[in-house]
Amino acid sequence: MKNIKVFSGTASKQLSKAICKNLHINLGNLEIRRFSDGEIFVEIDESVRGSNVYVIQSTSEPVNENLMELFIIIDALKRAAANEITAVIPYFGYSRQDRKVSDRSPITARLISDLLITAGIKKVITMDLHAGQIQGFFDIPVDHLYARPIAIKYIKKKFKKENFTIGSPDAGGMERARVFAKQLKDSSLIMTDKRRPAPNMAQITKVIGEVQGRNVILIDDMIDTGGTAVKSAEAIIKSGAKSVSMFCTHGVLSGDAVKNIENSHIDELIITDTINNQEKLKGSKKIKVLTVSDLIAEAIKRIVSNKSISQLFS
């Protein structure tokens, strides 16, 4: 780890400190400030010449501010003669815009990928992409991590020998839920049938699968406004389930999401710290946060030592 340096943008400071603690290195020093008109200025406060640098920054709310900050940090490191720059993006903003949804709409996730490469990165580490095909938008190596081992460990500890069923809030997430079920000794699977009439709006028409008397754990990659989660939980409880919990890697939690969860049939929402939600979650009784710092640190160790990362998830 002697030639490794880790820097953080403002969006992921706490997570970056935890990762560096696990790696037994100090978080790199840089100065980020904003001029009166909103322009971002970055200055690296230590030598990075010849170093392999990891820049940790989730592109969460405010998405555009955090993205621009990441681009400028990368450019500053490149111009300071860093040997190789890896962007560690625990939460990849714009990942829901991975394809054209109308004749004259953009593929913004591809645009962000191109901009990151132009800025000067050579590798990407990210976690639980909303659409796996985004890896193909990069013409550089992408290490796609999964929070699944962290979630499974927690689920096993919490439910122990109780009957539980793994579920997906929609058909698109069934493959993700199926992998969870397989690693949880072939737990049974259910899903809710979701329709989305407009952005950030969801309608649940029915529950597919047996939930009577069972503890249901819904699995998804992210939770935004909480509309789908709340309506899925309501439908599952009405179908006879004993309880509903949910695991989502990324707690976007925009708008009244926390309030919606607190007032819902969901017993517990489990998220990770890919997004810093400390302020939003003050006073929350239903939302549990697990850290991904150890997992990301282990991935960095394996990359440095040229070891397999896929073994972490098999």
Strand-helix topology:
Elements: E1 4-8, H1 13-23, E2 30-34, E3 40-44, E4 52-56, H2 63-79, E5 84-89, H3 108-119, E6 123-127, E7 142-145, H4 148-159, E8 164-168, H5 174-183, E9 189-195, E10 203-208, E11 215-223, H6 227-238, E12 243-251, H7 257-262, E13 266-272, E14 287-290, H8 293-304
Parallel strand pairs: 1-4, 4-5, 5-6, 6-7, 8-9, 8-11, 11-12, 12-13, 13-14
Antiparallel strand pairs: 2-3, 9-10
Helix pairs in contact: 1-8
According to DSSP, the number of beta strands is 14
CATH architecture of the largest domain: 3-Layer(aba) Sandwich
Strand-residue fraction? Answer: 25-35%
Rounded to an integer in angstroms, the radius of gyration calculated over CA atoms is 20 Å
What do the pLDDT scores average to?
Answer: 93
Distance between the termini: 26 Å
Question: Helix- and strand-based class?
Answer: alpha/beta
Number of domains: 2
Give a short account of the largest sheet: 7 strands, mixed
Report helical residue fraction. Answer: 25-40%
Question: Strand order, biggest sheet?
Answer: 10-9-8-11-12-13-14
CATH topology tier name of the largest domain: Rossmann fold
Uncertain residue ranges: none
Order of helices and strands: EHEEEHEHEEHEHEEEHEHEEH
Number of helices: 8
What is the CATH class of the largest domain? Alpha Beta
Give the overall shape. globular
Structural write-up:
By secondary structure, the chain is of the alpha/beta class. It has 2 domains: 4-146 and 294-312, 3-Layer(aba) Sandwich (Rossmann fold); 148-291, Rossmann fold (3-Layer(aba) Sandwich), CATH 3.40.50. 29% of the residues lie in helices and 26% in strands. It has helices at 13-23, 63-79, 108-119, 148-159, 174-183, 227-238, 257-262, 293-304; strands at residues 4-8, 30-34, 40-44, 52-56, 84-89, 123-127, 142-145, 164-168, 189-195, 203-208, 215-223, 243-251, 266-272, 287-290. The protein has a 7-stranded mixed sheet with strand order 10-9-8-11-12-13-14, with helices on both faces. The protein has a 5-stranded parallel sheet with strand order 1-4-5-6-7, with helices on both faces. Strands 2-3 form a two-stranded antiparallel sheet. Helix 6 links the parallel strand 11 and strand 12. Helix 1 packs across helix 8. The longest helix has 17 residues, at 63-79.
